[in-house]
């Protein structure tokens, strides 16, 4: 079947995470079906190294993710653990941090917009 794609998690090739036009320190991704040109729909695997922090951003559409490994702490102190499936609705804002690193399967339906590229509140 030519329209099928199989992604093996043990053979991922990560590239610097640059979805906002700049590389985010400690973050890399392996795009599965995500394409910014199609409105930001699709999925990808996100790897966050120990100490990495995402940019503060607003969701223009749904963002959902499954924690595959490690933990992720959201700006409000909520900790997402392995096997947690998290949904952010359109219009929600946040940023996240990982102390020890994590691997996340992300499902996007819209392009996230950075609020401040310096993460100042």
Write a concise synopsis of the structure shown.
The chain has 121 residues and is mainly β. The protein has strands spanning 15-16, 27-31, 41-48, 56-58, 62-70, 72-74, 79-80, 85-88, 93-94, 96-97, 102-109, 113-116. It has a single domain, classed as Jelly Rolls (Sandwich), CATH 2.60.120.
Element order: H for helix, E for strand: EEEEEEEEEEEE
Radius of gyration of CA atoms, rounded to a whole number:
14 Å
Query: Under the CATH scheme, which architecture would be assigned?
Result: Sandwich
Low-confidence stretches: none
Percent helix range:
under 10%
* CATH class category name: Mainly Beta
Main pleated sheet = 6 strands, antiparallel
Ends distance: 49 Å
Strand order across the biggest sheet? 1-2-3-11-5-8
Quick one: overall form? globular
Q: CATH topology, which one?
A: Jelly Rolls
> How many runs of DSSP E, i.e. beta strands?
12
Q: Can you count the helices?
A: 0
CATH superfamily: Jelly Rolls
- Which structural class best describes the helix and strand composition? mainly beta
Classify the beta-strand content into a percent band: 35-45%
Mean pLDDT, rounded to whole units?
A: 93
State the domain count: 1
List keywords for this structure.
mainly beta; 3-stranded antiparallel beta sheet; 0% helix; Jelly Rolls; 12 strands; 6-stranded antiparallel beta sheet; 121 residues
């Amino acid at each position: 079947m030519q329209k099928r794609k199989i992604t093996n998690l043990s053979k991922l090739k990560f590239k610097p995470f640059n979805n906002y036009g700049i590389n985010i320190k400690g973050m890399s991704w392996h795009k599965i079906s995500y394409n910014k040109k199609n409105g930001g729909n699709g999925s990808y695997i996100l790897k966050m190294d120990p100490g990495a922090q995402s940019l503060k951003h607003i969701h223009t559409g749904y963002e959902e993710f499954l924690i595959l490994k490690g933990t992720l702490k959201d700006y409000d102190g909520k900790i997402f653990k392995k096997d947690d499936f998290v949904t952010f609705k359109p219009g929600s804002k946040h940023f996240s941090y990982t102390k020890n690193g994590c691997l996340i399967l992300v499902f996007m339906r819209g392009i996230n917009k950075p609020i401040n590229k310096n993460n100042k509140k």
